[in-house]
Amino acid sequence: MLDVRRLYLLKTVAARGSITAAAHSLALTAGAVSQQLAALRSEVGVDLLRPDGRTVALTEAGRVLLEHADRILSAVEEAESAMAAVRGTVGATATLAALPSTVTRIVAPALTALGSRHPQLTVTCSITDQAQLRELALGTVDVVLGQRYHHLPDTTPRGIDVSPLLDDPLLVVTAADRGDDRPVALRELGTHPLAVPPPTTECGQAILQGCQQAGFTPAPRFVTADIAAQLTLARSGLATALVPRTAIDPTTPGIRAVPIADHPVQRLLFAATRHTENANPTTTAVIAALRTAAHEGRTASP
Predict the structure, then answer these.
(1) SS3 per-residue string spanning 59-114
(2) Residue 123 pLDDT
(3) What share of the chain has pLDDT > 70, as a percent?
(4) Mean pLDDT (whole number) for 18-28
(5) Contact between 243 and 173 (Cβ < 8 Å)
(6) What is the distance between the alpha carbons of residues 119 and 92, in angstroms, rounded to a whole number?
């Protein structure tokens, strides 16, 4: 009988691209992973991986087995969710991956509320903007607080359920003594020294497309994905920043944040979980807390 844990290792190696990367993500040694994959190869009697430059790739047999492994691993998780639903109680642990820009106004309030409502639940949180949905699909996290910019296509992987939380517009941020509180047309920013994320990021791409729709291609003075740095540059009067509303702490002094008047750029914040037929009480509790915090954070004015 095939070992489910070995099938999971095969899936992880295929997703990570190498045995070393898979071992690092699972806190195992490369030798341990190689040993388990060798045992899996012996079980099926055919090579599952082949060298591909500095990485490894699935053979045809590996691809066939991975298709079955995905269904098997999904069935195992479905069984676990069904048992959790029968128990009807929130579990002891959960893992959350969230964007840095959501910590102040959504993640921190949500985790605080969860701690009061479910004191037995410990949520381990990874604050990252890198490949959260891939980690969710691999099973390394239980819930993702992610984003999708409305200018960009939906790239949600198969088998992932998305629950919308909040439409989060980008605001034009300047020093408090610059201008007034009226909305600013995006085309007006063509002459501003801008501080924006790199165009390789989702936010950077969305800003670039929005500016092009407004009739100009931005030539930013500062390029950084660090929102704190963008706000510092805006506060000092060195730049105008375009920052998601939720990423701005309402208590931040010395800045003015106003809406975009003509070509709004906004992201959808969502909670995502792996699809199961039975709702898991633990992930349901985490998502409910995120939804409440997102709703309450919407009413706070930056």
Answers:
(1) CHHHHHHHHHHHHHHHHHHHHHHHHHHHHCCCCCEEEEEECHHHHHHHHHHHHHHH
(2) 95
(3) 98
(4) 90
(5) yes
(6) 9
Q: Measuring CA to CA, how many Å separate 28 from each of 21, 32, 277, 301? A: 10, 7, 32, 46
pLDDT of residue 37: 93
Q: How many CA atoms lie within 13 A of 61 on its CB side?
A: 11
pLDDT, one tens digit per residue, over 283-297 is 999 999 999 999 886
Q: 233: which 2 tokens?
A: 């540059």
The residues, ordered by sequence, that sit 6+ positions from 191 with a Cβ below 8 Å of its Cβ are none
Return all residues near 206 (Cβ < 8 A) that are at least 6 apart. Answer: 149, 150, 151, 152, 170, 265, 267
157 CB neighbour count, 10 Å cutoff: 11
The position carrying tokens 């003075």 is 221
